[in-house]
TrEMBL record, chain A:
Record's keyword annotation contains Nucleotide-binding: yes
GO molecular function: ATP binding
UniProt name for this protein: Spermidine/putrescine transport system ATP-binding protein
PROSITE patterns: ABC_TRANSPORTER_1 (PS00211), ABC_TRANSPORTER_2 (PS50893)
Species name: Ancylobacter amanitiformis
SUPFAM superfamilies (UniProt xref): MOP-like (SSF50331), P-loop containing nucleoside triphosphate hydrolases (SSF52540)
TrEMBL record, chain B:
Start and end residues of each ABC transmembrane type-1 domain: 66-253
Topological relation to the membrane, as annotated: Multi-pass membrane protein
Protein's name according to its UniProt entry: Spermidine/putrescine transport system permease protein
Transmembrane residue ranges: 12-34, 66-89, 101-124, 136-155, 183-203, 234-253
Amino acid sequence: MSRDVSLDRVTMRFASYVAVNNVSLDIKAGEFFSFLGPSGCGKTTILRMISGFMNPTEGRILIGGEDMKGNGPNKRPTALIFQNLALFPMMSVADNIAFGLEMRGVDKSVRRRRAEELLELVALPDAADKRIDELSGGMKQRVAIARALAVEPQVMLLDEPLSALDLKLRQHMRAELRAIQRRTGLTFIYITHDQGEALTMSDRVGVMSRGQLEQVGPPSEIYNEPATAFVAGFVGENNVFTGRITEVAGGQAVVETGDGRLIGRNPRGIRVGTQVVMLVRPERLKPLAVAGPTPENPNVLSRSVDHVDFEGAFANVHLKQPDGAKPLSMHISNDGSLTDLVGDRVFTVGFAPQDALVLAANGA
Amino acid sequence: MRKLTGSDILIRAYLVLFFFFLLAPLGVMVIATFNSSRFPTVTPWLGTTTKWFDALFNDPQMWEGLVNSLIVGVAVVLVSVPLGTAAAMVLDNLHRQARTFVYAVMVSPLLTPGVIIGISTLVFWDRLGVKGGLHLAVIGQSSFITAYIMLMVLARLQRLDRSQEEAALDLGASHPQVFRKILLPYLRSSLVAGGVLAFFQSFENYNTTLFTRGTDITLTIYIASKVRTGLTPAVNALGVILIALTIVGAVGYEIMRRREVARAAAARRQAELEEIPANALVIADAH
């Protein structure tokens, strides 16, 4: 059985430092929810408060509607998978997995059977009698998951458990974690600074910065409709044009930038005269056949190639900006049209107004 | 082979001298045991004998001292290991200022001469009406041996990955269960090493024991009294037995340790090999 988790105006202070600032959030039962943010944003503090290792200075944490105040970590229906896994090196794999059951006074034979079932679930059927130091990184990961599942938690908490694995294994474990979550139907709360992990695994993502939730939504919404410049900058790459709005009409804004007059979407209805950033994803910047702006193609730039990073599936073309500013980045799909990208060639590139997002400049 | 430089030669000469000074007296002592001379000496050699072992085994005072030393040693282990462990755990959880103070208090007996510990233990307990004896020797010795245990346990505690304790709590363990199932097994090697150290510290102690023993004798006291009243090679025979036991213990421990290291390394290699199919699976999935 899985439970929902609610944070009700939760604040955590350490002396004068506010680690988590007035966060309210409802995580549904059976949901895969990720907290995404840079280190120090407060995501680990939230996880430790949900698991009971810390108590919020203000606000309440509810699991299944029940206030968890005063319940220590050993009295909560949560299981935490630690960043370093924290397996017990002096116990066998089976004893690690059965540890929670042993603490609950479950019979030895029942514990053993349950450990073997769980090893089956995490695809490690013959590992029961191995010692922890005999396992590879991926195997340890699976044992940690099995150990947490053994206590039949209603909420699983995961603190960047994949960060120690190599790339291939990490991608594999993403799929596997997601599959385990679907199979068990448990609420998963996942902490990560890796946007790829958050976007591929989660039903919803909460992006955090400096103790506050910047945006909560499904992965596609976080990527396509970032609510703040921070979210846009933290999730995915962007080309950033800074400037001032000179005109607003029909959900669009005209921004006077160092690169000229550019038009983009203005979903937040920002007013004329405001300092803003215009954000364009590299995959939305495209080479154009035309030479100058037209009513259909209002955003046109001529830039020479700085260098090209060939990534396999696509090429990342870096275009020189005037005054030595950060080069623009343009992703060109490797669909057979990719030729002739090297050298001092000048590209005419552009983007449609609906592919450019206008947001208030950071801190404004 | 490359040419030896001046500093190589110096280092080698130093090592040779170092081990000579360390081991030569033991060698002389061992050899003297088998000399039938009445005095423990190598020259003149008056004939090879094992009679001093017989003399040793037939000396009731020696046996009494040995038994008392064993009793005191075991008692010191039983007192100082739990106390030292508790002190280390307290110290590990204290904040900086309190920590510095408690640390200084705990370690100060190590810096105090054993004679002073012996005298002050005697004076203190005498006022409370407790007379000298083996029990007081245990208390006196424990007051500084506990500090050794504390230092050893503390060193290991500070390397403990706290998430181990947190993981156990998270899985539903109570605090006593965390102590028994996580902390104790983790500290086991330090506790065993500390226990052995405590035993030998006690066994060889003379200064503190001299003042606190009352009328009881321990092995060191017995040997010292022999030095005054006429040393015979029987004491050397005792030394030979103790050296032999030490060597057997050390070699046995080392053999066990090497086997364990080799076994763990082999198992880990095996696990890395088994990981490859899992990786291959990922690659197959990608297509």
